[in-house]
Amino acid sequence: MPAPTAPLRVTTNQEVCDTHTWMRGFVVASVDRAEVSAADGSFRIDEVPPGTYELSFWHEVLEGSSQTVTVPAGAVAEVQVDFRPAAEAAP
Is position 1 within any domain? Predict the structure, then answer.
């Protein structure tokens, strides 16, 4: 019998200017899973095996981050990501 799986739901908050619609972020959960985000930045990856995962978040302009998330068997794991402006480099 295969191990039970659960969805991983991710929501993002991006501090960006509405004028720059070309700006976008990327989330890579693993090489064999991908999902396109909705207009509000949220997405869901179904059938994730229970376990602990390291998620990395990248944005071409905003500061990236990583989070550890534990996906319990038979329950939804939710992650909130807040993209913030990258710190300016010191002169």
Answer: no
Task: Report the candidate in 87, 84, 90 with the shortest Cα–Cα distance to residue 14.
Answer: 84
Chain segment 48-69, per-residue pLDDT in tens = 888 888 877 777 777 778 888 8
Secondary structure (DSSP) of the chain: -PPP-EEEEEEEEE---TT-TT--EEEESBTTB-----TTS-EEEEEEPSEEEEEEEEESSEEPEEEEEEE-TTS-EEEEEEEEEPPPPP-
**Rounded to whole angstroms, how far apart are CA atoms 61 and 69?**
24
> Is residue 37 within 8 Å of residue 43, measured between CB atoms?
yes
Q: Which residues have C-beta within 8 Å of that of residue 51, sequence separation ≥ 6?
A: 70, 71
Task: Classify residue 89: in a domain, yes or no.
Answer: no
pTM tops 0.70, yes or no = no
CATH code: domain of residue 57: 2.60.40.1120
